[in-house]
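Two proteins, back to back. First:
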Amino acid sequence: MRSLILALSLATAAAAAQPPVLRTVELGAGMHLLRAEVADRDATRSRGLMHRTSLPQNGGMLFVFDQDGIHCMWMKNTLIPLSVAFLDAQGAIINIADMQPHSEQSHCAARPARYALEMTQGWFAQRGVRADARLRGLEKLPPR
């Protein structure tokens, strides 16, 4: 009986450590394509990229907020350095911030944003994607 309880406990812990399978959307930034997991619910936005050890090349996470606002991001329990771009409802980048692993420092949109896109740190800078650039593909977001 103790073995069964231990096995169930380990299986439950392993399942909890696995990131949930999220829908994805293909986005474009200039000539660059990326695939972003869509975090559009409270639970997926709260978890974000916590506990991940890597991201796929040109992969990231798109946070979809219910309304425009001064949304902020932090890196609690996040293991990899990230850059976050805050986007308005039309997909224009408002501002980009670099974030350090395990930091609880808030990084906020400079004006009301509808989305935040997290990518591996430096992804935007390495591709010359800056504030005022417009991302393509947000119209492909699946309905909630």
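And the second protein:
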Amino acid sequence: MRVCSGKFVKDMAVTNSRGNKLIRATRAYRFFGRDRETIAEAFAGDIIGLVNPGQFAIGDTVHTGPPLKFLDIPRFPPEHFGRLRLQDQRHKQFDDGLRQLEEEGLMQVFYVESGRREPIVGVVGALQFDVIKSRLSTEYGVEIVVDPSTFTTVRWVADAIKPLPLLGGASTAAVDRQIRRVRLFANEGEVQYVGKQKPTCELHAA
């Protein structure tokens, strides 16, 4: 995290504006290449690391005092999709690993509403699939296989409650980690088709 103003002090209580959750910053570090050192304080302009697994995601605003939130950091839409198949029974470790990697911004995770329940992950570059496999293996002890998917783009449904019109075979219904409704498309032509034929179906790219 970057200290934007004020002074950071080890063990201080800070609030993550996402969820308005109070967190005590007990482990803070400064990095030098591969090395890191514990710090007791930091000032505006400093970049430090906080170790609080599962508490932070890219773009979070951490503050003290009155509520504060910076504008969200833009995320590049995924262009490559693959279905992850777990090769053993370590489901908890698998789920924990997926959640952590997604919070880091490495990928986005989707679950198709019907049929197989293996997660589908979306990434910007295909080489990220190798990174996912390696990190799940080395950090969480789980082995996976990535099955390439025919999907090439995703759109989020604007209205979380409004029933969608029948879209035929132009897309596949799914949800993301926050249980927001999405549609997975095989190509941009399908997205344009839905936009023209089903104008009441409001979709957005993020």
